[in-house]
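Exercise 3.2. Students should predict the tertiary structure of the chain below and write it as structure tokens, then compare their answer with the key that follows.

Predict this chain's 3D structure.
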Amino acid sequence: VNHIRQDKEEPSVCRLFLYVPVQFRTKNITNNNFQHAFDDAKNVMKSYKDMNDSFIGVPLVTDTETFDTKRSESLYENLRSYGYTDSINVIYEGYWTFKMYDFILRTDIDVFIYRHFATYIPSNCTFIIGPGKYATNFNKRKLRRIANDMGFAHANISDMGSTWYGSPYDAYLVANQTLHSMLWLAQYEFAMPEREYKLGMLMWPQWHYGVLLLYGQHLALNHLVAINQIRILIGQHLLDQSTTDNTVEYITQGTRLNLHCWHTDERFSKFAFKDGEYNRTELKQYKDDKSAQAYAMRMALESKYMTLEEMAAYGRNKSLPS
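Answer key:
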């Protein structure tokens, strides 16, 4: 499960590790440095006679580079009910599990990875960020003021999305400062009714607790860029192409690395797919279509109707064009 390839000739493998979500970090779990947090998982592993790989659990409390007891407690106290805390914290606390790689991708689950991603290498040590759409004049001014309150520098960059592609260390730096910023924002910039979602979408897009992660990331990236710790590129033409895009040039030219499902009812819609509105007949309709929209539809439906055995066989027999 956790074998690391020794050279590029070895086939790709999926590495798995267990992570303790912030919402479950109660006293009985965190007592004695998470001593019994993974007992059940370890017992399951023992039941597999042919499983000799080492067990990996996150957090690794003995690693001071990636685990801070006080921060973990603060995350539980202030952000355990926020839905996206773990998507950042796992990058920070899990850094030791992936820092041996050249590049990592952090993205949402409502995306399709396009085949060009497999051969794309960022240039000039650039940390690439997908585009975002949260910025208004109001919250840009507010975030600059908050950066000043925090003692953060600010580079006047905005509308950065949730997809990251770059070196593991850059991701670790961004995750670390994003968590710090999210905690600050939650404690000092949002009232309890906002944190409890009692306002719903009333304040969107001016100031909305639901995008706390992006606000925190905004502060983190601006600070790190301003103090010359990282170099970033907002990948408008690389990352997060919409799955509703019915043009063909990005797919045929291979200039996009992933497709992203935004909040829409247009095809391809993740909401319609979840509700079962697309079926096998769509595959025939989009068979020869070269658009991003069609690619998303085919990927979603083929994976839905393909058995695990068929998927494994397809993966073994399919190779990238040279």
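Discussion points: Residues 168-188 form the longest helix (21 residues). Residues 1-100 form one domain.
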